[in-house]
Specification:
Elements (H helix, E strand, L loop, with lengths): L1 H17 L8 H5 L1 E4 L4 E3 H7 L5 E6 L4 H16 L4 E6 L4 H10 L5 E4 L7 H5 L7 E5 L5 E6 L5 H10 L1
Parallel strand pairs: 3-4, 4-5
Antiparallel strand pairs: 1-2, 1-5, 3-6, 6-7
Length: 165
């Protein structure tokens, strides 16, 4: 019985560590070069620096992603409820033109950047991207306050934004 309890405690501690929230972006993410809507290059670090001092809601999405498109009304509601946050849309589209058309077609309001190598690329791997849409929150000091939710109306997301007001 003692061995079983020890094994359960060990398993729980391992699982707790694997689910721990990241509070900082990995070097690979920060150095990742993205594209702006005016087709210039910028690193993710420079993007974060640009909005330092603000709460940032990151929406990782793609114009071809049906779940992302279905979630857009929830994002718009979030934007109405938390207008002081910066809404940073990072697209996993594979081509610039499709990305720009998607922003217009779905009337996506916010700051927009395109990754250079898609979901399985450097940026995607560095944030453990396994699904889109993916929402993250960065606090005013540039620390990750919420590492992962997949719904824009997730209670964790709302609670995080309320704490950061």
């Amino acid at each position: 019985m003692k061995k079983i309890i020890t094994l359960l405690a060990f398993t729980f501690s391992i699982l707790s560590c694997t689910n721990a929230q990241q509070t900082e972006f990995k070097k690979e993410a920060l150095e990742n070069v993205m594209t702006t809507t005016d087709n210039t290059s910028i690193t993710f670090q420079d993007i974060l620096n640009k909005y330092k001092g603000k709460t940032i809601v990151i929406d990782v999405w793609a114009s071809w992603c049906s779940d992302c498109i279905k979630g857009m009304p929830k994002v718009k509601t979030l934007q109405e409820q938390y207008p002081d946050a910066i809404y940073l849309f990072i697209s996993m589209d594979k081509n610039y033109d499709a990305w720009i058309k998607g922003i217009t077609k779905y009337d996506v309001k916010g700051e927009h950047y395109l990754t250079s190598d898609g979901m399985k690329g450097v940026f995607g791997k560095s944030i453990n991207l396994d699904w889109i849409p993916r929402y993250m929150v960065v606090d005013k000091e540039g620390k990750i306050a919420l590492f992962k939710v997949i719904e824009a109306d997730d209670n964790k997301l709302i609670e995080t934004l309320n704490k950061l007001k």
